Amino acid sequence: MAGAVEAVKIFTDGACQGNPGPGGWAAILRYRGVERELTGFEADTTNNRMEMMAVIAALHSLKRPCAVEIYSDSRYVIDGMTKWMAGWQKRGWKSAAKEPVKNQDLWQNMLVAAAPHAITWHWVRGHDGHPENERCDALAVAAIATALLSKN
Description:
The protein is α/β, with parallel strands linked by helices. It is built from four helices and five strands; from the N terminus they run E-E-E-H-E-H-H-E-H.
C-alpha cells in the first residue's frame, strides 16, 4: 500500500540512582512484528530527563512519519506533551508560576522528534506487571550500571 502510514508501538522508561545521579533509559519499538530495543545512559542526570530521553531516542530512530502509540509510566512526559506544552510555548517557555520550564532543551528536542508523527500517548502504571514497562525498567536499570562504569 503506497502512502500508508506505518503503525509503531513504543514503550519507554527511565531510571536514576539518586535524583540527580547516574541514569539510564530504555525504549522498545514494535513495528510489523519486529521488536527493537534502545538504551542509553548519562553519568549525572535526573529521572525525568531519562524518561524524556527514552521517548526522544525512540522517535528519532523512526525513518519516516508513522502512527505512533507511546506507552510510558511518566505523567511528566505525557502531561508535558499533551497538557502543558501549549502554555509553555505561549508564555515563552515559562511555567504557569512564571519560572523557566525545567528541561527545556529536551522538551524542544522532543517536539522536533514528535513533529513528523501522529502520536497517541498512553500512561501505564509503573512497576505494576506491565510486561513492556517491566522490560524497559530492567533495561534502564542495566544502563545505569554502564553509567557507573563510565564514571571510573
